[in-house]
Amino acid sequence: MFHHTPLQLKRGNKIKMNNRQHFFQKACTATIYIVVSVVLASGQTGSNPDLYDKLNSDKYLGEFEVITRIYDEQVFTEGPAVDREGNVYFTNIRVSKILKWDPLKNKLSIFRTGSNSANGLRFTMNGELLVCEGQPARLTRTNMKTGEFTVLAFQYKGKALQSLNDMDFDSSGRIFFSSRTSKPDLQKENKRSVYRVDPDGKIHQLLSEPQVHMPNGIVVSPGEKILYLIEAHGEKNHNRNILAFDLHEDGSISNRRMLYNFYPGRSDDGMSIDIEGNLYVAAGLHKRRGTSETLDTRPGIHVISPEGKLLAFRETPEDTITNCTFGGEDLKTLFVTCGSYLLSIRTKIPGKRSYQPDI
């Protein structure tokens, strides 16, 4: 049995857990299941100290639970995705693994090794697993029943892509993905960009530098009228925001506008969206990490309305929070990758329908 142990957190401090907590370790992994009680420290280092303090977060979010903790040579979790049976897949980029959490068995296992520094994951409506790979950079698809493996994108106009980061798709089967690295080789690689892959295999470059600085998380709105894009550049005077674009029936985009600006704090990394169009954004830091990013953005899940208003916030236990996705039978459980943890939090509004595969 797993103990439900209270966990208290102060910003910038390490996690302190009750001695009664049991860790089940096996090889390089272990699992725990803890109820998290988050205690926010008083005060705010941002330019608007009331930004977080006046939120009615209970209207949108429950409390965090730690579902599993990962132990390995290096740990940096990313890219959660949930299959039809409720299994949660996510990545440990640093050691090129895709992990699988089985909630029925309370078991963490390795789904794939040698994943080419896989980052974002997503299940299609027919249950196939899409993977954003980093080294080499390519978008792949795996048939979870047969094991058939298909490379959907690896170059554009004869040059390699930069590391793939995140993706989403629409009801026409078009896949939108971001591609970016910190130190690109532009003689061999394309610029940092956002692409679209059509069902016929054609690849279209929708945005590229200098139109975007560091494209990251990407989401299609429930009505497929808006494409949201995260910009997350750590250097001074570069974009750290959420952009919105009109998304047209032919898959093209227009009418760029800034929905939310995180600068000078750390921008969001990944995000998901509910059926009402609110974004659930993984952003912020507990402590500085050698970039120009400040601590103005608190570390946790930020709920942001389609109008760009911060509606709710829940703080996460450690750096670095990276991504989230909806799951559960009612699509009201948000799974969050955060440092060495896979977390979950209940939401009052379900995620958009395409987060739950039909098969």
Fold and architecture overview:
A hairpin with a 5-residue loop joins strand 29 and strand 30. The model is unreliable at 1-47 (pLDDT under 50). The two termini are 31 Å apart. The protein contains one helix and 31 strands. It is globular and about 50 Å long. 1% of the residues lie in helices and 46% in strands. It has one helix at 50-53, and strands spanning 7-8, 16-17, 24-26, 29-31, 34-35, 61-70, 77-82, 88-92, 97-102, 107-113, 121-123, 129-134, 137-142, 149-153, 155-156, 159-160, 164-169, 175-179, 193-197, 203-208, 215-220, 226-232, 240-247, 253-261, 268-273, 279-283, 300-304, 310-315, 321-327, 333-338, 341-347. The strands form eight sheets. Strands 3, 4, 5, 6, 29, 30 and 31 form a seven-stranded antiparallel β-sheet that branches. It has one domain (7-352): Neuraminidase. It is mostly beta strands.
Instruction: Please count the beta strands (DSSP E, at least 2 residues each).
Output: 31
Mean pLDDT: 88
Which CATH class? Mainly Beta
The secondary structure category is mainly beta
Radius of gyration: 19 Å
Give a concise summary.
This protein is mainly β and 359 residues long. Helix content is 1%, strand content 46%.
What would the keywords be for this entry?
359 residues; mainly beta; Neuraminidase; 7-stranded antiparallel beta sheet; 4-stranded antiparallel beta sheet; 31 strands; 46% strand; disordered N terminus
